[in-house]
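Support request, please re-run this one:
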Amino acid sequence: MTTAAKTGTELNLIAHLLRRTGFGATWDELQECAALGYDGTIDRLFNPGEPEHMPSDIIRRYHPDQSITQIAPSSGSVWMYRMTTTKTPFEEKIALFWHRIFATGQTKLIQGKVMLTQIEMFRQFGLGSFRDLLVQLSQNPAMILWLDNQDNHKDNINENYGREILELFAMGVGNYSEEDIKECSRAFTGWTIANMPYMSIRMRNNTLRPYGYVAWQYRFDPDDHDEGEKTFLGETGNFNGDDIIDIICKNEATPRFIARHLYHHFIADELPVPQWPFEGPKDPEAIQLMVDAYFANDYNIGAMLRAVFESDMFKSEATQYARVKAPVELVVGTLRLAGGFDWPTQDIFKATAACSYMGQALLAPVSVEGWMGGEDWISTGSMVQRINFASDAMGDLTKKGIKAIIDRVSERHPVGEVAPMALVDDCLELLGALQVEPDTRKGLFTYARAQGEINPRTNEGARKIASVLQLIVSTREYQLI
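Re-run finished. Output below.
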């Protein structure tokens, strides 16, 4: 294999890695990672340094509604700004993963600030110890209120959180009993919320709208905690919530359940979660790889993912383009390629709304089970939305990302026209080393040839190049990741 071929192969692998750990990559981002190599890129993913993104004070100056976040589109748009402008997209991808699993919705909580605080918690703890993450989740005001644990009292337990931490968040159906749910719920009595200390007594007690919602914080009420002996998953003791989480995390069912979610989000589409108790994983070896990494690294989620990214399984062609892009992945990835947002704009609401139209409203999962993903993302209506959004973004010649692609095509062909096949290859490469099937490539070539003369240094030539980009993002392959 020649040096050029090796370089091309590694570049494609890096592009694959960046699609899974972020939202794809521009050509400049790919070249930057190519200088590090595949292994060096993995190292940087797990040691990214300080994130850079549009400053929150700038956003609030131009979007007062995104400071108060009383309505869901405003809260979702705060996160959309972060995803489209950050220099560390892996953090956002991890936050999106946990938002999908620990599905919490502003529809019930009303105030979005607590939702955004939960997303920040996912960024901070999402790649660390699963035990630490579960503790943070159990003490998170948004989750406490979402699953009613403020109504879980020692004399009258509420089983909502006790049930969901076992069924949906950590272990999965079939690995615990109804009695375990009750005992788990008893252990989490007294885990409740309080408002900020400086607020008035009237505000603390009544949680007046809208400002009382801003101040929710975790509080442990020892007078409302069940101190009695409990038997949970075969162990007996005077357990509290921390003890329950310790028992959950050391149970082998837990990493197997989490590994299957990680596989579904980072490797290939899995069966819908409700089928998991009856159908085994698509790739048991991949699941075992992550389970082993979990126990060898103190329940560390990052170690589970790193083991995957370094494996031959992840690098294989069968794993590439094996997932349907979630709406947020498609919208954010397209905007980052097209140029994103340099400054606050009303267009941010269009991007946030587009995710909703495609079936994934930010901070508003369809149920406590979250989104199933996979082929569920694709329907006649959602496909039209997906293609229209991507095509509109790629056809906007005012966007800096589109200008950059056209300029690079011009640099590669400094004299005369661009041959149709060369143009197709350039555009695919400049859109993040995108790979397409031979039939798709043939169709793109046929279209490019039909455009006639294409000179990238003219306005007409730029428009024609943009139309090729529009056709590429309308392909089946662009819907995959």
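The first strand starts at residue 191 and ends at 194. Residues 392 and 470 are 8 Å apart (CA to CA).
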